[in-house]
Amino acid sequence: MSEHTHEAVSDESKRHKHEGPRNHNLTYIVSALLTIFAFAAVLYGQLDRTFIILFIVVLGLIQAVFQLFFWMHAKEKGHFFPVIGIAFGFFIALTAVAAAVWWMWW
Amino acid sequence: MANAHAHAHAAVHHEPKRYTGLMDWLTTVDHKKIGILYLIAGGFFFLIGGLEAILIRTQLMYPDQKIFVGDTFNQLTTMHGTTMIFFAAMPLLFAFMNAVVPLQIGARDVAFPFVNALGFWLFFAGGVLMNTSWFLGGAPDAGWTAYAPLSSIIDPDGKFHGVDFYVLGLQIAGIGTLIGGINFLVTIINMRAPGMTFMRMPLFTWTVFVTSILITFAFPAITVALIELMFDRLFHGAFFEASRGGNNVLWEHLFWIFGHPEVYILIMPAFGIISEVVSTFSKKRLFGYSSMVFATVLIGFLSFMVWVHHMFTTGIGAVGNSIFAIATMAIAVPTGVKIFNWLFTLWGGNIRFTVANLFATAFIPTFVMGGVTGVMLAVPAADFQYHDTYFVVAHFHYVIVGGLILSVFAGLYYWWPKMFGRMLSEGLGKVHFWLFFIGFHLTFFPQHFLGLMGLPRRYFTYMPGFGLETGNFISTIGAFLQGLGMIVFLINIIVTARKQKDAGNDPWDGFTLEWTIPSPAPEYNFKQTPLVRGLDAFWKEKMAGNKEMTPAEPIGPIHMPSPSILPFVMSLGLFISGYGFIYHHYIVSGAGLVITIISMFLRSLFDDHGWHIEPEELEEHKGGKA
Amino acid sequence: MAQTHGVAALPAEPEKATLEGKNKLLAFWTFLGAECVLFGCLFATFMALRNQVPDGPTAQELFDLKTVGWSTFLLLTSSLTSVFAIMNMHKGKHGATQLWLAVTVLLGLGFLILEIDEFTHYVHEGHKFTSSAFGTSFYTLVGCHGAHVTFGIIWITTLILQGFKKGLTVVTAPKYYVAALYWHFVDLVWVFIFTVVYLMGKVGH
């Protein structure tokens, strides 16, 4: 247990590096911009359908990663298992979606 | 660890709330007691499922019999499969997880004792809910896989609610299993004793770790599948109804995205039990420990990538079939690694054929047979021939009964002294083993050939004159022998329970931490958290000439969680609400949900500060060592 | 008991200060992994059935991107305000934590009102739960997300209220932290819902 107390102390000094509002505000702006781009791509309507779909899905993924790492603190230390867990969950979700798209929709 | 607890709660000393008798069992949050509850409930459902199996085999003993026909037979097969998988095999494994894992990693309890109790009561509520269907208009009859659109047919008279019981029962039990899985995952990651690194964990703990991961990521898929079936049945949804654009193959995908990992959820802890038993009774450390760990993780990962092999005949095309066929065959490689490791562990060992080891060594060839038919079934072209015949029935009974159940018995004979403080009778145990083992092979070996001769599964009879009589007759005799074996086992339990506690700390000369503490384990497990100095921690100390583990902390007050009735009440709420949904009385379902939600509020509002066992009490305890 | 803990006595990251807190965080992350699979399966269902509209309005005719845009804005902002709450918690400012969480709850309520309004509108247009496989899968996926928002609102409100009695301690801090994680996750799922359901629905097939 004593190792945990050390951790808490060393965290104190590191805390200020990532605990400012700057990164969080930045993530908000990035998320808003990505959202606006996605909406704009659809509303513009002159682009190829497959391109639009791929484009907005990629924008969604980028936004998800941003929020996961900054807002949910997944980039901080001690998040090895959480990141593995979310990644594995996402991977299985993706498998299910891929199966549905491949065999039932496309 | 106890110190941290004490600090966290500002060392408030609360008078321990203690219940006795029935109230003790309803409110317990002690993982060892919850393990016993899982064992009793799982054992009870195992007997019900076994009885259903014997009724099925009685009907099929001779051609053209009319004992259980049509719907009754469908209900028997459906309930046999569902009960055995969800309400017998799963809780029996959870019994071992609870009874053994915290002890093996040197922990005082699981990460969430309250959630642990909740998991048990939810499973139990689901199991009871589903089995009451027998008395309420008929049991589910759409097969344990409940394929739509068969399962989405609604009785126009509104009398038969079978599949609704299936949906609600599994949903409630499934939530319990899911939180149980998360609980053990966190327990194994966060609660290990000092020095117990991942690569020093006993193999049973490793397999439970992987199983917990599979539970966590597979059960949400069946949650969704059951929600969709429920919406179709209760609220006239269109998920599986082709006339409104629904697609019934969707059910198959969702069910098997869950269902395939599910069978690995079952077999993984079995692999762990076999590893512990085989190495203990060979007096040798497990051969190729790190390759065993690697194989376990690899099988766990691959289990999510093979679900389509249950659907080869659905018509998804050659490319899909081939990919999943190859992925399926790939699983044979890590599984083969395990088989060879067990054989090499036995090789040259000082083997003792105790009942536990009889079951474990019988497991190895039996499971190999089930594995070989598995690879046969993985060939899509051949699967078109085998599909839905008794060949498939023979295959999955070889891996589940021959694999899982044999190892459950091995585990029961091995850990019974640690759970109850008494040794099961070896004499009766041998009778049990031989009856069950011979009965098992008599039942299922002929079914391979019945299947190849074209006998389809789930049919309630067959005609004379097609050469199917002998196989079916032998199969039924085998089922009776297995039933006899179970009766002998029950007698063994009763005889054992009636005698004095006779088990020492370490009756088998074991390697792992659970054998360093008294049998049965005291409430707080370890008076002092042990310091782990290597793989097979206790063996390591024995080799160094020590009689016990080196403690990692001084003797101090031990923090214990308070017992609570809330897990039981929460499950009761969902149980009531389940009936409300089944009978479309939404006021009842609402009331049930309100009970559950109020319990959740109470849990959130009133923090449990627990209580402490003081060092003086530890000294008094008869199991305690100075 | 809460009063005995002064703000100064709290460790830097109170949510991780005890083993219970650490356990809770890890368990909750694991639960979110399971939620990924849950929503993944619902998305898979929706993808498979999204064009199955025998009669009645299609996604392209139905969806109004303006409402969706506002919903997205509300939820995204609420995710940011819950970050502010946790930042203040780390500084030991309990009042500010509760205040930002209250803002989060209000924004969540706004989202929910927009969603209910939207659903009512669709039902009038003939896009019902029972009308087609598209309808069933749409309401199940988006409704499941809405149910998560509702649960989050109730949960966080409970935490804010019990905060007045219990204060900021190593027991309440993990609760706040975990609720914020949940809220971020719900917002994250919405990113995929507006992409896959609404935007792709507008693109048509």
Automatic annotation (TrEMBL), chain A:
The chain crosses the membrane at residues 25-45, 51-71, 83-105. Keywords: Cell membrane, Membrane, Transmembrane, Transmembrane helix. The keyword Lyase does not apply. Residues 1-14 have a biased composition (Basic and acidic residues). It comes from the Bacteria. It is a multi-pass membrane protein. Residues 1-21 are annotated as: Disordered. It is found in: Cell membrane. Its main location: membrane. Belongs to the cytochrome c oxidase bacterial subunit 4 family. This is Cytochrome C oxidase subunit IV.
TrEMBL record, chain C:
This is Cytochrome B oxidoreductase. It comes from the Bacteria. It is a multi-pass membrane protein. The keyword Transmembrane helix applies. It is found in: Cell membrane. InterPro entries: Cyt_c/ubiquinol_Oxase_su3, Cyt_c_oxidase-like_su3, Cyt_c_oxidase_su3-like_sf, Cyt_c_oxidase_su3_a-hlx, Ubiquinol_oxase_su3_dom. SUPFAM superfamilies: Cytochrome c oxidase subunit III-like. Pfam families: COX3. Belongs to the cytochrome c oxidase subunit 3 family. Residues 26-202 form the Heme-copper oxidase subunit III family profile domain. The chain crosses the membrane at residues 26-48, 68-87, 99-116, 136-164, 176-200. Keywords: Cell membrane, Membrane, Transmembrane, Transmembrane helix. Its main location: membrane. CDD domains: Ubiquinol_oxidase_III (cd02863).
